[in-house]
Each structure stands twice: as structure tokens, then as C-alpha cells.
Amino acid sequence: MSKDSYLLQVDDLSVSFAEQEIVSGVSFCLEQGKTLAIVGESGSGKSLTALSILQLLPYPHAHHPTGDIIFQGQSLMGKSEKVLEAVRGNKISMIFQEPMTSLNPLHNIEKQIAETLLLHKGLTGKAAQLRIIELLELVGIKNPQSRLNAYPHELSGGQRQRVMIAMALANEPDLLIADEPTTALDATIQKQILRLLKSLQQRLNMGILLITHDLNIVRQFSDHVLVMCKGKQVEYQQTDRLFKSPVDAYTKKLLNAVPTGQMPALIDANVILEAHDINVSFAMKKNFWGKTIQSLQVVKNVSLKIHEGETLALVGESGSGKSTLAQAILQLNESTGQVVYLGKNVQLLAKNDLQALRQQLQIVFQDPYASLSPRMSVQDIIAEGMHVFNHQQKLSDQEISQQVAQVLTKVGLEQSAASRYPHQFSGGQRQRIAIARALILKPKLIVLDEPTSALDRSIQKQIIDLLKALQQELSLSYLFISHDLSVVKAVSHRVLVMKAGEIVEQGVTSQLFAQAKHPYTQELISSTIL
Fold first, then answer.
1. Could you give the 3-state DSSP secondary structure of residue 275?
2. Which one of 11, 136, 433, 463 has the lowest number of neighbouring Cβ atoms within 10 Å?
3. Is the pLDDT score of 423 beyond 90?
4. Model confidence over 329-380: pLDDT tens digits?
């Protein structure tokens, strides 16, 4: 095939910020109707390469010392905003990695999708609304009409990701750049989204540039693979050939970085926390006096136990109530039922006693970029909790700084990281900072809400090994929320399966994976290559 017939052609692309070269010498081609996957560790330059195609980098601070980007026979390098705006969202669409930071928190879902339909198709009013409902149905949003007025914070992580996909597909682009499009989705929805993208690709003859850390997706979904490491491409092959005969040592390392192992059964471990008949409802509609007249029950009569030194995994589809249940256990939302921690009924504690208890019950959130303050240094982020609870220990600032340095070392970061800010770290490093923030308070139980979902396989394995080592050293208990069953299988002692706010199955991890009884659990397992 001649170069002119490619949908997209990238030749010797380099990206520099000021005088520092971050990406150098990247070259690849993408045919119409085909999929090219770009894989590599966090910080390898995958997203920078993708953003360069749409010229979305912070120019002129960012610049391209070498290279060219040719789309449908026309160079995009250095083109005017008018030319690029006609391409962006119309001929080339992009699904961004972090939907919470990509969606406008001030606008509802309908307005955000309508914007791109108006800009490129001129659709307004009823015609635009019908198209928006069609798109939301297409990406698996249940009762889409009821979600039109929802704001991003009112949706689960997976639902926000599906809204992003709907926006990207709105104008049926020739090229879709998908930056970790299924990161926040459970196995069944992930499978549906990939099938959807594949069917749309065939119907529209659409090219897809797929950035992902999930090698199972790469193997099933892509035609060619580009492997990047530290800003350079180290291998570029047809997918089948790369998986059968990888050439570069780094590629071999990536392919071998699959979560393995099985947690041994706990014997006679003490119960650290019990939850009985937990219910959580959200107000959907209120009358003039503020009284709720319509509510949505998202957690229904859930009971569970967590033992000392145990990892209890909570799995289920996006929107099933996993994170809401965890927040109810930590008393971060209104709920009914009973939570007992080390024999104390948490709901009956006075405000001061509950605050003191929070030192022992910590949480690591799904998105470290959103949960770490960009205005605070790593030192201040990690030490913040120490200052809150310091009235008990009465430590000096120097002693707190020493503890920050120690916990940074414990999570595998340099002590010099304390003086830097979150944006100066990769996704995996930010997640280590979030873990350090929880660890410094010496908790007994940590809620881990999708702690590895945004990480590539090699970094994911490092975080899993870190969590296991910390658990063994400190006798920590984890409530581990995840949609990645391969990770759950490697890290958990027991599993709870949640669907539509209810626990439909639970059991010892090895037994549940070998002999799942509920159809939904069977569907989850069959949707995942373990």
C-alpha cells in the first residue's frame, strides 16, 4: 500500500517541552478500517503522541523538533485553529483517559453532547435530543432519557466513560483516538463497548488508534501494535506476530506482567469490621419544602464481614453500588443499617469519636489525579492527616517530615518526591502517593477503590505486589473494589459480587472462580481472560 493511501501517517515525530525532548522518532501508519494499539508504561509518551495528532499540546511551550502528521493526505502540523477545529470532533474524535476531568462539571450530559452535534452537524432541539438518546443507548446507558439532566458527579466512573464515548462517536468520525477507553469499565461492559466500537468500525470503515495498558484488549482488538518506552518506540509489529515472537526485552517484560498467584486461606482471623443491612438511597425529586418525594435505592440490605489481614474484593458492573457501599461503611454518605468496627457501633459515635476513628479507616480513591490537590506539594498532601490527628501524638514538624520520608520509601518513591507536585508524576507514581497518604496514619482497614484500573500492566503488578507486601508487614485489611477479575483473583481472599445494589454471590476466591453459581458471576468470569 502506498503512503498516500493511509488514513493516518506519522513520520519521525518528536515532542519537546522547552528544551527537553519527551518523545522522539515515532513513526507508524494506520489504514482505513484498521486498529493500531499503542502500549507502554505510564509516562512512556503514548498520550503525548495521540494529542499531537490533534495538535492539542500546550503550544508554543510544546513543539515538534522533527516529524510530520498526515491525515487523509493532508499535513496537520502547524495548521490554523480554523482548519483544526473542522477536523477535531468531526473527522477525528478522541476519548480521553480521565472522564471526570474531561467532562464539564457545570453542564449536564445533554448539553455536553449537544455541543458537538451543534458545532459539526447543526442539530438543535428535538432532533439533537433524539440523537443524544440514541447515542447513550448505543453505549449502554440504562434509561438514557432520565440521565439527560444528570451532571458528571452524579454518574459512576464507568457511566462517565460511556458518556465520553458517546460524545466521541456523535459525528461518526473517520478516525477515533481512544485513550484507555475501557479503563473504568467492568468486564461485561468492557466487552460490550469493544464490540460496539468494532461494529461501528466495520459500518463506518473507521480507523481506531487505541491507547491501552490492557494487553488482553490489544490481542483481541488490534491489527498492529506499537510499543513505547521512555518516549521512544521499541517495537512495531502485526499483533499476532508480536504476541508470538516479541523481539525487544521491554515488550517481553510487558507481556509477562500479568497478575498471578493466589492468596492463602485465612484461619481463625479476628473480625475487624461488620456491616449489617446497609441501605443507601439518593433523592431524585423533592417538593417545594425540600421533602424527598422520589428516591433511588442504590444499595439494598447489604451485609459483610472483613477480617484482620484479609482482602475482601467487591466486584460488579459500573453503577452497581460498589463505591456507594464503601462510602456508607466509612460514614461518608447517609445510610441505614449498622456498621460495627472492633465492637463499636460506628453510627452511635459522637462526632469527635468518629473523627478519631477515621485515622484507622482510610480510603485510596480510583482517580489519583482528581483526589490529590494540584496546589499542594506531596509533603503537604501526605502530612495533612498527620496534622489533623497530631493533637494525640504531639509531633514536631520535623518529626512529621521524617515520617513522610519514611512512608515515601515504603511505597517505593524517592524521598525527594516530597517537594514536588502531583502533575509532575506519572499515574502509577500518583497512586503510590495516594497509598502513602493513607498509610502514614497507620490504619487497620483501607478501602481501595479501583486502585489499579488506570495503570498499565507492569505498573499494576508493582502496585499489587506493594499492597500485598504492606498487608503482610502491617496486618492490614483491605476492601478492594475492582472490575478487573484477573487482579481480584491474584489479590483477594474472598469475593462479594454486587449487582443492582445487592450481593448476588460471595465466597472464597479460589472456589468462586472455579464454581460460580449465579449467572451474573458466570457472565463476569466468562467475559474476562484470566
1. strand
2. 11
3. no
4. 999 999 999 999 999 999 888 888 888 888 999 999 877 778 899 999 999 9
Contact 235, 39 (CB under 8 A): no
Residue 343, Ramachandran bin (φ over 0: left; ψ between -120 and 50: alpha; else beta): left
Q: What's the mean per-residue pLDDT of the chain?
A: 89
DSSP state of 264: P
What is the Cα–Cα distance from 283 to 294, expressed in whole angstroms? Answer: 6
CA angle 10–12–17, rounded 5-degree value: 100
Q: How far apart are CA 274 and CA 254, in angstroms?
A: 39
Taking only the tens place, the pLDDT of each residue in 65-104 is 999 999 999 999 989 999 998 899 889 999 887 666 778 9
AA identity, residue 264 = P
DSSP 451-468: TTTTS-HHHHHHHHHHHH
Contacts of 424 (CB under 8 A, 6+ apart): none
Query: What is the DSSP code (8-state) at residue 386?
Result: H
273 DSSP β-pair partners: 306, 341
- pLDDT of 119 reads 85
Residues recorded for the chain: 530
Rounded to an integer, what distance in angstroms lies between the CA atom of residue 69 and that of residue 8?
A: 7
Q: Grid coordinates representing 493?
A: 481472599
Helix (H, G, I), strand (E, B) or coil at 30: strand
Cis peptide before 60 (omega within 30 of 0): yes
Helices (H), 62-108: 81-87, 99-102
Report pLDDT for 530: 45
Separation of alpha carbons 293 and 286, rounded Å: 5
d(CA 34, CA 514): 37
With contact defined as beta carbons under 8 Å apart, do 25 and 66 qualify? yes
C-alpha 176/C-alpha 196 separation (Å) is 13
pLDDT of residue 471: 94
Cell 518516549, located at residue = 231
Query: What's the per-residue H, E or C state across 34-58?
Result: CEEEEEECCCCCHHHHHHHHCCCCC
Quick one: which of 21, 11, 35, 179 has its CA closest to 94? 179
